[in-house]
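[Discussion] Sanity-checking designs against the backbone

I'm trying to build intuition for which residues belong where. Below is a structure token string of 290 positions. I'd appreciate it if someone posts a full sequence so I can compare it with mine line by line.
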């Protein structure tokens, strides 16, 4: 797809439109840091904000969004808000409660997207299939009630999706996974897309480790762009939805300026297959200690 601005959208299979780049808030501390980052992102033109209960910053994120809306004649419908179900809240009743708590903290009547954050929490490791199915039922009900416009998952591998689909009435609309140079996860992306899911890529900059790559420095010079811009553009051209994060206004703006150039097919492949990068591999969700 050919995107030209932050407000250009993918379309989920239920018709809901989701802006092609989201602003991530993982590791943005609750309070002024998260508030300022989100407000700056909205000022730069971002209209897709991604948070989670686990990030501990839903209140600050919500306040920034609501303040921006009220001060800038922007409607709530123009801002796409995502949050996620934390591991301790899996199960039917706990999920229903968690959804309502997130709505309250974010100060909104509805969520645009709600995701199961991890498929196999430590707390439910002996019964993860059942608790995922129970959580999904609660999410389907909230979707039917209009509390959530779209539902999806995060960090799910095929085995987790296969289990969920045994009882799901609604196929997940999104799978949010770690995607960055050298960690393209092409097989998982294709599997998810075959199920008509949009693939979102978190940590598109490899949580910073990518900046020491000589190859990435050479590409940045070639295109007269920052390494971060190269990473985000790569993810977008791969057909994914990147979620860059920063708390620095200048970098927040720079990270949004990726629509005036394109990477060649050779450079896309080069970036996908980079090796020996200073980045952590994707965490195995069945071994995560939380």
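Best answer:
Here's mine. Compare freely.
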């Amino acid at each position: 797809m050919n995107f030209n601005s932050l407000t250009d959208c993918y379309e989920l299979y239920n018709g809901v439109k989701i802006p092609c780049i989201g602003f991530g808030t993982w590791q943005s501390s609750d309070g002024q840091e998260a508030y300022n980052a989100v407000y700056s992102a909205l000022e730069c033109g971002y209209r897709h904000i991604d948070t989670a209960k686990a990030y501990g910053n839903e209140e600050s994120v919500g306040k920034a969004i609501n303040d921006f809306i009220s001060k800038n004649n922007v409607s709530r419908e123009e801002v796409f808000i995502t949050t996620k179900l934390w591991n301790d809240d899996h199960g039917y009743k706990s999920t229903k409660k968690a959804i309502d708590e997130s709505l309250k903290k974010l100060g909104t009547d509805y969520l645009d997207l709600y995701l199961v954050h991890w498929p196999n929490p430590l707390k439910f490791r002996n019964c993860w299939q059942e608790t995922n199915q129970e959580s999904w039922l609660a999410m389907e009900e909230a979707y039917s009630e209009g509390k959530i416009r779209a539902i999806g998952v995060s960090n799910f591998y095929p085995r987790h999706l296969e289990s969920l689909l045994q009882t799901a009435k609604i196929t997940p609309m999104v799978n949010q996974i770690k995607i960055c140079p050298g960690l393209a996860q092409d097989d998982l992306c294709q599997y998810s897309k075959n199920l008509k899911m949009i693939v979102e890529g978190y940590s598109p900059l490899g949580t910073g480790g990518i900046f020491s790559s000589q190859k990435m420095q050479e590409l940045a010079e070639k295109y007269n762009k920052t390494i971060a811009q190269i990473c985000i553009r790569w993810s977008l051209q791969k057909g994914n939805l990147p979620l860059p994060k920063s708390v620095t206004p200048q970098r927040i703006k720079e990270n949004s300026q990726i629509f005036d150039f394109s990477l060649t097919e050779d450079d896309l492949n080069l970036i996908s297959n980079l090796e020996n990068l200073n980045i952590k591999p994707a965490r195995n969700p069945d071994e995560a200690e939380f």
